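Kindly review this record before class:
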Amino acid sequence: MPNALEKAFTRTISKTNIKVYRATKGRVWNKMLGMPVLLMTVKGRRTGQPRTKPLVYFTHNGAYVVTGSLGGAPQEPLWFRNLREAKTVIVEVGNELYEADVEIATDEEHPELWAKATSLASFFSDYQARTERKFPMAKLTPRKS
């Protein structure tokens, strides 16, 4: 479990990432560990307040797929808990902004999505080795305008 200093550091980096990403329309801090980054805004499940998180993603059948790995921590990330309660989110990819439908990957879909995630980013396998928890995955499908 991260200590208070680690949490504060992570929160500061995340906030800075969001500011820089938006200021540069996604041209800076648009990759993390070799993977593309998007900004996802979801309402807090308790507060209803919008929460924005920079997340690595890959695309699959027209959806942006995000993984709740939390670096291999034993608990699910708070942002994913919020995502479980949401029907839609706002996704920023570069200078594009989308409303997207949320669909949590089913047990049947998970193996295919997980295989793609680990083939694109080996760090997911490293994270998985740190915990018994199966990382949840979600598909964020942009709505047609």
User: Anything to note?
Assistant: The chain has one domain: 4-142. Residues 4-142 form a domain with the Pnp Oxidase; Chain A fold (CATH 2.30.110.10).
